[in-house]
Amino acid sequence: MTDTKMALGFLLHALIPSFNSVALLAGFFIYLAIAGSIVPGKAIRGVTLADGTRIHYRCNGLVSLLLLVALLGISSKMGFVSPTVISDRGLELLSTTFTFSVLVTLVLYIAGSKSHSNSSSQKAHVSGNLIHDWWFGIQLNPHFMGIDLKFFFVRAGMMGWLLINLSVLAKSIQDATLSQSMILYQLFCALYILDYFVYEEYMTSTWDIIAERLGFMLVFGDLVWIPFTFSIQGWWLLWNKVDLTTAAIIANCFVFLIGYLVFRGANKQKHVFKKNPKALIWGRPPKVIGGKLLASGYWGVARHCNYLGDLLLALSFSLPCGISSPVPYFYPIYLLILLIWREKRDEARCAEKYKEIWADYCKLVPWRILPYVY
């Protein structure tokens, strides 16, 4: 009983935000705000909104991330910061980031409620239900000091995921517990995150950016859920040794490769189609339903084929942990539930928006995510 109380007391103490954790988070956000504004990057125009306007994005995430990692590496070599500072303060940073998410979304709710703008990006959509409006948000693209907050937060979440992983990697090297499993997990995640920023402009045409309003659901998802739950496998491998066979490693690499090809290929086809509806898909003119819906390539295989790729990638991040525990599989299990829920929401919205066109598309492409299964 005493040991349990001590463990619980340690956990509760570790969850209390400290000055250092607040300073780390603030420094991270300040860097992203400055780098996002001054680092050179490709200028991308977002999709056309209902009022005909388009938001402009500076896609410099890759350079900003590499610069940040380099600065942290140099600072670590010079003794200014410990490479394990994040892994040493994981719970503190989790609670600090969660608290920030709650506070910032309350501010977004208050500021959005007072907005009198009629533009599609800034117009307030108030239902009158405080919890609903706080959770789902009021404005589509709220800005702060010229920064598009939705784009800023998703960038912060993806970068934060890599920084947590790198600190966990440094911790495993420091503790002499580095294994093939850890290397495989770190490699897959790093490739996925770097690829995300190489193709960052594709994010500007995703459903989250073009349709979801910015509330607690997205802010929490970007800042807390992505970096702190997607890295569970790394934390687990710090304390658990897993020996992989050569066959298991090859199979894991195969799952990652297939997942990447489907995920990136599907998203690229959709993005290119929105930019140029006549661009070839797999070497052929695209098949388009009602002049609006792409039914070629991956989008002719399943209506949400990109979700299948995402699920395979999530699985590849967990397979290096073996099958002795369900804990490392939290991410792919959660993602499966989330994507099925999101897919149903997407289907309902598309059916309402496209009506008969969507019905024709569903007849032509009957499978939702996995052909012949779902």
The rounded distance between the terminal residues' Cα atoms is: 48 Å
Low-confidence stretches: none
In round numbers, the mean pLDDT is 88
**What radius of gyration results from the CA coordinates?**
22 Å
Helix count? 15
Which sequence of strands runs across the widest sheet?
1-2
Please provide the ordered H/E string of secondary-structure elements.
Answer: HHEEHHHHEEHHHHHHEEHHH
Helix content: 55-70%
How would you describe the shape? Answer: globular
Q: Structural class per helix/strand content?
A: mainly alpha
Q: How can the largest sheet be summarized?
A: 2 strands, antiparallel
Strand tally is: 6
Proportion of strand residues: under 5%
Could you describe the 3D structure shown?
The structure is a single chain. A two-stranded antiparallel ribbon has the order 1-2. It has a two-stranded antiparallel sheet with strand order 3-4. It has a two-stranded antiparallel ribbon with strand order 5-6. The protein has 374 residues and is mostly helical. The model has no long low-confidence stretch (mean pLDDT 88). It has helices at 2-14, 19-38, 61-77, 85-88, 90-113, 130-136, 149-174, 180-198, 207-210, 216-229, 232-239, 246-275, 305-318, 330-354, 356-364, and strands at residues 42-45, 56-59, 143-144, 147-148, 288-289, 293-294.
SSE inventory with pairings:
Elements: H1 2-14, H2 19-38, E1 42-45, E2 56-59, H3 61-77, H4 85-88, H5 90-113, H6 130-136, E3 143-144, E4 147-148, H7 149-174, H8 180-198, H9 207-210, H10 216-229, H11 232-239, H12 246-275, E5 288-289, E6 293-294, H13 305-318, H14 330-354, H15 356-364
Antiparallel strand pairs: 1-2, 3-4, 5-6
